[in-house]
Design a protein that fits this description.
The chain contains eleven helices and eight strands. It is an alpha/beta fold. It has two domains: 157 residues, Rossmann fold (3-Layer(aba) Sandwich), CATH 3.40.50.1000; 77 residues.
Length: 242
């Protein structure tokens, strides 16, 4: 299998981009603004709850990042809609202020993979405006020929979830490697027979990444893996396994 036959699909937040500060602060700010919009008592935002929800599909994230008992049942749907609008606006502003960054080694790793002939694709569960701003702010189109957010995929009827997004971004799944930090990335790869790499430094918990073919603590370790399937991995890269 040559490098030109291989497609590597990267998750975005928690895998390539560290937006923890931008997202946590922006979502907390947006949540308070949403309570105020509906003239509801605003509890202190639960940042741990928000952090645990990061990486979930946008519709799920905005229903999970706050305590539903703090919002009357008849208001919850419109509350979630307003929360998403407020949050996306605040997150985009935070990104444009420079409150996110690529993880160490990301640029060099992506450049080397491209030089080796790998096709690189990018996907995300995030809302489309946020995703496009991440791509723009960090110049990710330098390395990625294909990029897809779940919101855009659903709106255009291209896919309904991450496995569907992988189907859209690649064809020969046995030649695909998926790199991510949450269970959704690992499960998407396993469902299609692709190889999976779990990033320990991201938002996922240890048990989420346990089913990945490999686990890494640094993006540069991808170069040592040489993006081979587990059966073809050399002894030199065995220490990168989880």
């Amino acid at each position: 299998m040559t490098a030109s036959d291989r497609v590597i699909i990267f998750d975005t937040d928690g895998t390539l981009v560290d937006g923890r500060r931008a997202v946590l602060d922006a979502v907390a700010q947006a949540l308070i603004a949403t309570y105020e919009h509906f003239e509801l008592a605003a509890p202190d935002p639960d940042r741990e709850r928000i952090a645990l929800a990061m990486g979930l599909p946008s519709p799920v994230f905005f229903r999970t990042a706050f305590d539903p008992e703090t919002v009357p049942g008849e208001l919850q749907d419109v509350f979630v809609g307003e929360f998403e609008v407020q949050s996306t606006r605040a997150e985009v502003a935070a990104l444009r202020r420079g409150e996110s960054h690529l993880y160490p080694g990301a640029e060099a790793t992506l450049e080397t993979l491209r030089e080796r002939g790998y096709a690189l694709a990018l996907y995300s569960n995030a809302a489309e405006p946020y995703f496009q701003t991440v791509v723009e702010v960090h110049g990710l189109d330098r390395w990625f020929s294909r990029a897809l957010s779940l919101e855009y995929a659903v709106r255009r009827r291209l896919a309904r979830n991450k496995p569907g997004m992988v189907r859209y971004l690649a064809r020969d799944y046995s030649s695909v490697v998926i790199v991510g930090d949450r269970i959704h990335d690992i499960d998407a790869g396993r469902a299609l027979g692709a190889s999976t790499v779990g990033c320990r430094y991201g938002f996922g918990e240890e048990d989420e990444l346990a089913r990945a073919d490999w686990q890494i603590d640094d993006l540069a370790e991808l170069l040592d893996l040489a993006c081979a399937r587990p059966s073809a991995m050399s002894d030199d890269s065995s220490e990168a396994r989880g």
